[in-house]
Amino acid sequence: MIQVAINGYGTIGKRVADAVREQPDMEVLGVAKTRPNFEAETAVEKGYPLYAAIEERADRFAEAGLEIAGPVEDLVANADVVVDATPSGIGAENKSLYEEYDTPALYQGGEDAELVDVSFNARSNFEAATGAQHVRVVSCNTTGLSRVIAPLQEAYGVEKVRATLVRRGGDPGQTSRGPINDILPDPVTIPSHHGPDVETIFPDLDIDTLGMKVPATLMHMHSLNVTLEEAVDAAEIRDRFADESRLFLIPESMSIDGSGKLKEYAHDVGRPRGDLWENCIWEESISTVGRDCYLFQGIHQESDVVPENVDAIRAVLGASDATDSIATTNEHLGIGF
Ligand code: NAD
Predict the structure, then answer these.
(1) 318 Cα to the center of ligand 1, angstroms
(2) Domain that holds residue 53
(3) 60, 145, 157, 250: which is deepest, by most CB within 10 A?
(4) Do 92 and 55 share a domain, yes or no?
């Protein structure tokens, strides 16, 4: 069994922990937190050994009635791999800790691409991470774009991608974030950082992205235009996407008109935390005009990177190939509607 440490137990970390626990070939060795809160309490209730990310603060856990298994150093030392899910920039500070114990580390999309040996998306470049010590699972938006670009590139060749990303202002729990009543070009400069980030997965891709931020918490929305190297029927692209396990084509018959109903659907079918691990593409939005393909997709920022982290664990340890890992992750997480 692969022993997985999770350092940083917030939005992404807690979801990765639960996804790892579901896998037949891995287990959660422990999770590290900086302070006691409701997430620390639920970690203990779920049976995850809790480690203190900052040793001087370990007493605070005891005061809150939470037993600490040890300092984060012990967790990292004993793990086969560590998933760093700390806030942007903290992963870079933690790198020396992982190097000290020679433990391969996965970082999240908030870290710079320069921090790591490889930026990772399971569908697009799984093998590139084999044996790497420092791997970055790219952001929710880059993951969403990569999953669509990979099959189009393989089948038809991609001349150019143009994407407008309408981004949620914050996650549901991020009460400090905004905007509250506004629509922001964000960043106002063009292209946004997302295009160069996608190029960490597809180095030769021509892609421009524009970002906006809106007062929403549920999901991001992408408006996508991909110029292919040949003219293709929209129906053919829909069929191709239907074969991609992490693309959910929302049928017109479901009358899902936006992220609100998508999340409602996820809750109705019993998804944990209402998570949508798949890109949610409106099937009837997939259109072509000559060589231009257009579509709208919803990206659940809190969860689409979760299966990618599980696959990245197997990739760095050379424990599986892409096809088997993706299939195992999908089966045990319950991906696909
Ligand atoms: P979060 O704030 O919800 O969780 C981070 C957790 O790490 C918190 O519990 C925080 O207390 C803890 N932490 C802070 N400093 C720490 C330290 N030194 N050691 C251990 N733990 C520490 O953040 P998040 O949304 O889960 O984001 C984590 C990473 O994932 C970031 O790089 C982010 O960019 C990326 N990401 C976030 C989203 C999203 O929408 N939330 C999507 C994709 C990727």
Answers:
(1) 26
(2) 2-138+305-333
(3) 145
(4) yes
